[in-house]
């Protein structure tokens, strides 16, 4: 049992299942990560847009900056040093990068904020005209969050001289940061939830994509087992017959004619089986329909051949044809299809059996009906009648030379036409096969994975 489990786990299909899951899972992960990054980036740009625009407007307002600089150096008239609105602050630096010293020693609210901004922010001359974000430690509560812009200006002194300087304009974004944090929490929570859901979806898709492969694999496995079984029987008979010949080395051909005849019969069975297997392999690699102009004469010729074969078998054949003008058909495939159904009816009807073939054109469809008055097929067997190697009565079928491959090949031909084949009870007894194909459809159904031999 352990060996079987180990073999299953190491099988190519199980390994491929894991690869499929990994591929789907990685694909979903990349999608969700990329989506989360894009949403957060777009949200940040949108939420900071008004703040950044305000910073740029203040940085371009030379009169405002001159007045703010004069105030910070003690020569201005503004009441609150560095405070320009409830959310804005300004810091100035000289050409050497040293901060201007406030004129007043009274520490008002704005000066308290400015003192902490000075400690947290250093002048970076490489970041001119670049908006950045900074968090400033607040000893009495939550940290402050600012967006700030650094730019270079020229200050006019009281004596008329000009001094180059730098300015940093700050805007408090605590409320925006809180809203951003809540939004990011919602986004990330949602993304993680759907990412975990993608694990389940990946497992489902990996299993779903493997279903047809597993089904085809099982059919191939069953096909090989059935083919081996069918070949084993005639080979065993042939071996026994040949061994009997060796047991009587002095016997003449006439004396052993029965063994020789049976051996030849089994050889013919094996040849028929291998021929049918080869046809199935060729058909499953993709049936190419090659239509040609076909008239009623084509079917009349087939009817004549079937009538002769039925007469030789002591049975009656009736052909009905309702076709006018010319249609396009792959004559080789259609003849093979009808021959399979006729041969099937011929095998399963008793002496004095009756077989009929009806061909009629109905609009854009061509309908074939092959009926017999044989023993019929049970409803349970009708579900499996088109499976390879399936036979209603294996013992009787073997006696009649059937291998259970004909109807499977017939269905492949009908499928190549995107048509439909069905089996019904024929009244009052027997079986009736009905085939419907479209005359304007020459599409070929693709070969199934693992079905090609």
UniProtKB/TrEMBL annotation:
**UniProt-listed Enzyme Commission number(s):** 2.7.13.3
Q: Which GO terms describe its biological process?
A: cellular response to phosphate starvation
InterPro entries referenced in this protein's UniProt entry, alphabetically: BphY/WalK/GraS-like, HATPase_C_sf, HATPase_dom, His_kinase_dom, HisK_dim/P_dom, HisK_dim/P_sf, Sig_transdc_His_kin-like_C
The subcellular localization recorded is: Membrane
Q: Could you tell me what reaction this enzyme catalyses? A: ATP + protein L-histidine = ADP + protein N-phospho-L-histidine
* Entry GO terms, CC: plasma membrane
Name-wise, this protein is: histidine kinase
This protein's species is Lactococcus allomyrinae
């Amino acid at each position: 049992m352990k060996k079987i489990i180990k073999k299953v786990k190491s099988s190519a299909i199980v390994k491929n299942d894991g690869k499929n899951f990994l591929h789907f899972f990685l694909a979903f992960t990349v999608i969700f990560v990329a989506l989360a990054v894009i949403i957060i980036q777009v949200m940040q740009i949108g939420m900071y847009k008004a703040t950044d625009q305000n910073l740029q407007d203040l940085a371009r307002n030379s009169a405002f900056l001159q007045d703010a600089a004069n105030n910070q150096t003690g020569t201005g008239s503004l009441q609150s040093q560095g405070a320009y609105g409830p959310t804005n602050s300004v810091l100035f630096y000289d050409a050497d990068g040293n901060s201007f010293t406030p004129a007043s020693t009274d520490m008002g609210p704005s000066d308290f904020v400015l003192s902490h901004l000075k400690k947290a922010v250093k002048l970076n001359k490489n970041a001119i005209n670049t908006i950045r974000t900074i968090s400033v430690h607040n000893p009495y509560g939550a940290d402050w969050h600012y967006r700030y812009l650094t730019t270079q200006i020229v200050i006019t002194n009281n004596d008329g001289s000009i001094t180059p300087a730098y300015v940093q304009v700050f805007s408090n974004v605590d409320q925006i940061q809180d809203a951003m944090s809540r939004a990011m929490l919602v986004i990330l929570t949602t993304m993680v939830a759907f990412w975990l859901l993608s694990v389940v979806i990946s497992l489902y898709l990996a299993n779903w994509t493997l279903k047809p492969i597993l089904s085809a694999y099982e059919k191939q496995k069953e096909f090989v087992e059935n083919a081996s079984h069918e070949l084993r029987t005639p080979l065993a008979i042939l071996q026994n017959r040949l061994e009997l010949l060796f047991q009587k080395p002095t016997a003449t051909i006439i004396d052993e004619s029965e063994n020789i005849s049976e051996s030849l019969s089994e050889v013919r069975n094996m040849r028929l089986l291998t021929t049918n297997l080869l046809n199935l392999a060729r058909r499953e690699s993709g049936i190419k329909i090659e239509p040609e102009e076909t008239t009623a004469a084509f079917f009349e010729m087939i009817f004549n051949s079937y009538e002769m074969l039925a007469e030789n078998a002591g049975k009656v054949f009736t052909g009905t044809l309702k076709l006018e003008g010319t249609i396009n058909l792959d004559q080789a495939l259609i003849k093979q299809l009808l021959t399979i159904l006729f041969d099937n009816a011929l095998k399963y009807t008793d002496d004095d059996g009756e077989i009929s073939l009806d061909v009629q054109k109905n609009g854009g469809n061509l309908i074939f009906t092959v009926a017999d008055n044989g023993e019929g097929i049970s409803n349970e067997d009708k579900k499996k009648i088109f499976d390879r190697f399936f036979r209603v009565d294996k013992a009787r079928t073997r006696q009649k030379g059937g291998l259970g491959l004909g109807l499977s090949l017939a269905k492949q031909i009908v499928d190549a036409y995107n048509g439909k084949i069905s089996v019904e009870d024929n009244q009052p007894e027997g079986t009736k096969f009905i085939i419907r194909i479209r005359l304007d459809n020459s599409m070929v159904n693709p070969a199934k994975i693992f079905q090609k031999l």
